[in-house]
Design brief:
Layout lengths: L3 H4 L15 E2 L2 H13 L2 H8 L35 E5 L3 E5 L11 H6 L6 E4 L11 E4 L15 E3 L1 E3 L3 E3 L5 H9 L5 H11 L1 E3 L2 E3 L6 H19 L17 E4 L8 E4 L4 E4 L2 E4 L3 H4 L2 E2 L2 E2 H10 L17 H19 L1 H5 L42
Antiparallel strand pairs: 1-3, 2-3, 4-5, 4-6, 7-8, 9-10, 11-14, 12-13, 13-14, 15-16
Amino acid sequence: MPMLDELMPWGTPPLRLGRPWVMAPDAASLKARWDALVRAEGVEQDALFGCTRARTPHSAVSQLPGQTTETGRFVREDGRCPEPVRVTHGPFDEQWLISDHRLIDVARPELWRVADDRQIFLVEQGWVAQASGPAVLASALLPDGRSPAGRPGRIRPVYRRPGGAEPNLAPGLLPALGRHYGREIDADEMVCWILAAAESSPAGCVVPLPADPETWLSGVELGRRMLEIQLRGGRGAQRPRLPGGRRPYVRAAVPARPGAMEYDAEEEVLSLGEGRVSPVPAEAWDFQVGGVRVLELWFERRTAAAEPGTLAAIRPPAWPREWSSELLELITVLALLGELKDRQRELKIGHEITELPGVLPPPGAARRPASVLDHHEEGPEGQFALL
């Protein structure tokens, strides 16, 4: 079976932040952390910053593409925090990031260069033996590519250039599939098939291609629904909603510091300390990625203790109302995707296309990012960067 690495040749490893405090579930905490770091000086600032080989307050770094942050050395910074940007942290967890290149060890500028409202990012999930969960996830937001368990996968933009130009697919793949299925195939259709049919393996993510055109259409229809749910309103998709009577609501307010998350399958109630959310379908509670339950991971990232005296310890004093709204949407997304699992299992590939002569393996140039020269990028200390 073809590997996703062959069908979508260009991909990057996950972002490597280098310091966890630059990302948070709420934007206000990031601004407070920035202010605390700017006020500190000398050894205190170095300790709060979390120096690594790649970054210290004295590092000279270029601007991230598409961002308007400063490029002077951070040790001289005295301004306000740049507006945090929304990103996807691991599976389904939308958080905020200070998109300042001076604070991120490896930010993958080539991804920021092609991130826009036309882009879709596919994220391979690390393979974990005997673990359930999807092999590939889609995001309209820039993802950090982290897997909750196992070996991290790769981030693969659907388009190599801004504006939805030049699909990140093996040259000649779409025409070859079009000849086989007797109809024109576009990049969006290929993405939908990948979401529906991709499988994790120790060797990487594999994507079987069916010989039967009807099987292809069935898989594409399933993948299109999966994509719409995962985009969560991005790229013009509708926000995911469960039918009336099944929509989750907050029945009892979440306390300022909820203790533990528990689930009552019989009552379909999710408890966060004294807080209550229902109805919560079992499909949402049981949804796993890489063998890790998504809802528990989401909750842990917002309630796990941080080391005192660090920037990561600067957090909301109480559970924000926005987190409850985000939890309701996450439950909806997982419930809707959980309902599609049976359709995925029933997708019988049958005979497969085992050879695509002249298409696979892709040429080496397809594995490198395209040149994007339609905007200026500021280099270290305000210089213009040469691309």
